[in-house]
Design a protein that fits this description.
Layout: H1 4-17, E1 25-28, E2 34-35, H2 39-46, E3 55-57, E4 60-64, E5 69-73, E6 78-84, E7 93-99, E8 102-108, E9 114-118, H3 123-128, E10 134-135, H4 141-149, H5 155-160, E11 165-166, H6 170-180, H7 193-213, E12 241-246, E13 249-254
Parallel strand pairs: 2-9, 10-11
Antiparallel strand pairs: 1-7, 3-4, 4-5, 5-9, 6-8, 7-8, 12-13
């Protein structure tokens, strides 16, 4: 599932391979991924424009041009692929932007999200992203502290709530909580100042490492590298890992390293 590090990788692909390039043609292979725009309008309004510097907010990629902006959300299975135009199409290619002899392809198997079109680079983008919280990569400690200290929900739910912090998904939240030694069912507003600061520090560390890797790493020294084992054990204490659901999400934590819950009353 693409999370902040994956989308940051897609932003880098767009910046290195498409920035400054003219969009010669837009091919929509599946209109089911388009939101608020028809295939005809997308083609008419984008062809002839050039991609400019892309941006990312949370799990959203802003593919800006010298005209309109396309906003991409990758859901659970989406990705952005840059390849020669002559490469055979993938059955899950939904939209292709031709740039000279190359193509930028939005590929998504399950089609849970898709592409949004912002004719006005400021007003329409703000409307589409309305309700998104502060980006998890750029949030300052004081902002983070204020956000969590007033949340009565479980800490795992608070971290993955995109209206609170934008960009964190299931894998990142579990990894951060494991490193901070906090039970995923702790209530956010019941964390001590020290616990919230430790959580913020570990979030920053995990995000920096994940962005460098282009994804949440599956190293054996990470919870992510062990969570799907048949009989998973903690890479820190070698104790058993437990599984449950928090806020409808599959959640993994260490029984020894993350004791207690202080869950909502």
């Amino acid at each position: 599932m693409p999370e902040l590090p994956d989308v940051e990788g897609f932003r880098e692909i767009l910046a290195s391979c498409a920035q400054g390039k003219r969009i010669n043609r837009v091919d929509v292979h599946d209109t089911g991924v388009l939101h608020g725009v028809s295939a005809g309008q997308l083609s008419r309004d984008l062809e002839g424009h050039r991609f400019t510097a892309p941006e990312r907010h949370g799990k959203w990629l802003l593919a800006r041009t010298d005209g309109p902006t396309v906003l991409l959300h990758f859901g659970m299975t989406g990705e952005l692929v840059f390849c020669p135009e002559a490469d055979p199409p993938d059955p899950h290619d939904r939209v292709a932007f031709t740039l000279g002899r190359n193509q930028l392809r939005y590929r998504d198997q399950r089609k849970l999200q898709g592409l949004w079109f912002a004719e006005d680079a400021d007003t329409d983008v703000a409307r589409i992203l309305d309700g998104q919280g502060i980006d998890a990569m750029t949030v300052k400690w004081a902002e983070f502290d204020e956000l969590l200290s007033r949340r009565r929900s479980r800490i795992k739910s608070a971290l993955t709530n995109q209206s609170v912090l934008a960009g964190l998904g299931n894998l990142l939240a579990d990894e951060i909580l494991w490193r901070a030694r906090l039970h995923p069912e702790c209530r956010a507003d019941r964390l001590t100042d020290h616990e919230r600061h430790r959580l913020y520090t570990e979030m920053r560390r995990v995000l920096r490492s994940s962005v460098r890797a282009g994804r949440v790493p599956t190293r054996k020294s990470w919870l992510t590298g062990c969570r799907d084992d048949a009989d998973p054990t903690c890479p820190r204490c070698e104790g058993p890992l437990s599984r449950t659901r928090v806020g409808g999400r599959g959640t993994v934590w260490c029984v020894r390293c993350q004791p207690g819950s202080r869950s909502p009353s």
